[in-house]
User: What shape does this take?
Amino acid sequence: QVYAHYILAQAALDRNNFAVAEKEFAIVDELNTSEWGAESKFQIALIKFNNKKLDESEALIYQIPEQYPDQDFWIARGFILLSDIYVARDNEFQAEQTLISVIENYPGDDLKQVANAKLKQLQAGRATTPVEQTEELIDNE
Assistant: This one.
């Protein structure tokens, strides 16, 4: 049953039907304690971020390590998204520190490279890579 909701959520996301995707991801998050649940929590946070609901997105990001402490990938993705929230709030210092934390603590190279690229852009005084481009960077690895 959880897998069906996960597939429905992914299909809705692919069709840009964010309301249905959010609803289905919430069901997966509620029913699953593994990677699917962590990814679902992240996807809901991303949908909230894209809808300019920064406080809600931030709260969800902080729930990922609490609920899914063994899901390093999704925790790091969440904190990279958190850096985008800080940039949206004109808090570049906190965005930088968040990215540095990912670089120093995440065990894999995939998201370290994304965090490094965003950090370099931020330090160069340019806005960080939009979330959509971040997704492309991750998908192309």
Q: What stands out?
A: The chain has eight helices and no strands.
